[in-house]
Amino acid sequence: MIEIVSGIENGEEVVTGSYRAISTDLQNGAKVKVNNSKDVKAEDA
Questions:
Q1: Where on the phi/psi map is residue 11: left (φ > 0), alpha (ψ -120 to 50), or beta?
Q2: Under DSSP, is residue 17 helix (H, G, I), strand (E, B) or coil?
Q3: Torsion over CA of 25, 23, 1 and 31, rounded to 10 degrees?
Q4: Residue 7: left (phi > 0), alpha (psi -120 to 50), or beta?
């Protein structure tokens, strides 16, 4: 688990996902698809 404890400004968005997706697969500056759906399946996250 990754916890953000500082550095977020009001109005900024936070990307969430599995540990692997955030720590390994996601590269700095990468484009991401926003999905604000409440019924996201685990394999889609």
A1: left
A2: coil
A3: -60
A4: left
Q: Please name the residue that has the structure tokens 């936070």.
A: 14
DSSP single-letter state for residue 22: I
pLDDT digits (tens, 9 = 90+) for 1-45: 778 899 999 998 888 888 888 888 888 888 888 888 877 665 554
**Is this structure's pTM higher than 0.85?**
no
Residues, the chain: 45
| Residue 4 CB contacts under 8 Å (≥ 6 apart), including other chains | 14
